[in-house]
């Protein structure tokens, strides 16, 4: 195959190519980006868990606030959370980049999926965060499936 003296070069070149191209084919953000997105989602979810739905709406991205009025947001969250009961535990299952929103094609979005156990039922919670202009991540969507 390769002469012995060229094997190390081939291994180094292959390693560099893997380091460069593998992240592009996976949909995972790097650790720092992931940590920032998780922190934003955690702050938001703590407000929701505490029943502070209006505060969670206020903390969300402007896009969400434009799409859903605060009163409607509070009403929907009260209904959903009363259906499932209080949160017992939540585990982060997955963090991935996701497709851009049609109205925000240039924005980076990350989808965080949690396995959540509520008093009355186990469900999946999905939080979508968007990178703001100041590089802070803000919640743009929250769903219980």
What would the keywords be for this entry?
145 residues; alpha+beta; Nuclear Transport Factor 2, Chain: A; four-stranded antiparallel β-sheet; 5 helices
- Give the CATH H-level superfamily: NTF2-like, domain 1
- In total, the number of domains comes to 1
Which stretches of 5+ consecutive residues score pLDDT under 50?
none
CATH architecture: Roll
Main sheet: which strands, in order across? 1-2-3-4
Mean pLDDT score, rounded?
Answer: 86
Rg over C-alpha atoms, rounded to the nearest angstrom: 20 Å
Number of strands: 4
CATH topology: Nuclear Transport Factor 2, Chain: A
Could you say which structural class the secondary elements and strand pairing correspond to? alpha+beta
**Helicity level, as a percent range?**
40-55%
CATH class: Alpha Beta
Question: Strand count, sense and closure of the main sheet?
Answer: 4 strands, antiparallel
The shape is elongated
Span between termini: 53 Å
Description:
With 145 residues, this protein is α+β, with helices and mostly antiparallel strands. The protein has one domain: Roll (Nuclear Transport Factor 2, Chain: A), CATH 3.10.450.100. It is 48% helix and 28% strand. It is built from five helices and four strands. A four-stranded antiparallel beta sheet has the order 1-2-3-4. A hairpin with a 3-residue loop joins strand 2 and strand 3. The N and C termini lie far apart (53 Å). The model has no long low-confidence stretch (mean pLDDT 86).
């Amino acid at each position: 195959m390769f002469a012995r003296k060229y094997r190390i070069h081939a291994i180094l070149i292959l390693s560099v190519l893997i380091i460069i191209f593998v992240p592009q084919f996976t949909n995972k953000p790097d650790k720092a980006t992931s940590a920032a997105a998780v922190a934003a989602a955690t702050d938001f979810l703590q407000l929701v868990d505490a029943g502070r739905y209006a505060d969670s709406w206020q903390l969300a991205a402007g896009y969400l606030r434009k799409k859903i009025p605060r009163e409607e947001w509070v009403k929907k969250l009260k209904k959903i959370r009363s259906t499932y009961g209080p949160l017992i535990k939540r585990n982060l299952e997955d963090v991935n980049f996701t497709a851009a929103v049609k109205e925000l094609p240039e924005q980076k979005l990350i989808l965080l999926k949690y396995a959540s156990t509520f008093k009355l039922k186990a469900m999946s919670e999905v939080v979508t965060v968007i990178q703001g202009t100041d590089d802070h991540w803000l919640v743009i969507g929250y769903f219980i499936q």
